[in-house]
Amino acid sequence: MVASGILDFGNALKAVSARGTEMARISVDDNGLMAAILGPLEKIRQVIEKVDGYVVIANINSSKQAVIGGETKAVNAAIKAFQEAGMNAQLIPVSHAFHTKIIASASGPIGRVLSDMNMQPPQVPIISNVTGEFYPQGSKEVVPEIIDLLSQQVASPVQFVKGLKTLYKEGARVFVEVGPKRALTGFVEDVLGGKDSDILSLSTNHQKNGDIVSFNRALCGL
To answer: Would the pTM of this model clear 0.85, i.e. be above it?
Structure first.
């Protein structure tokens, strides 16, 4: 958001702090669970549709991997169903079922904090994880819609696959992962790659190679 021009750096730090604070304040009877699932996305959808209780795909990461989240009983039942179907399913150690309605109570307070941050329309296009489309651009009148999308983000599924397809459609061909490891690099290659792919997907910090080697390899790739 800072790189796009929506927030200045100081307010971005305040926004991150506010998000963490509101997450810590959430008090519900069931914090829920999250689990990473390896398998075809359509098959993952089919399995959770048959599970009793509230469980959804919380992170739509690639065509071969997703994260589910929801009520504890429902997620445990889903894990069992995936394992019986021969798919890998593993619990993720998190405090709550993020990107699900279980933490929806944090959306309102976060939105109120963001409303006081003098946000601006993006100068550089940026994708919303809620919609998988670009945040609205133009005049200052779009800011309330941006705040609403940011508020929804904590309790809405991450539309990573759709976001990648939107970027590709709009001409993006080079994807650089900022952060440790190369999970996102792999997602890009899975969603947009292929035998005749015209994309370049680079990671910048993989612990097996070390910081400097990883960064130099990314520069070479560029």
So the answer is: yes
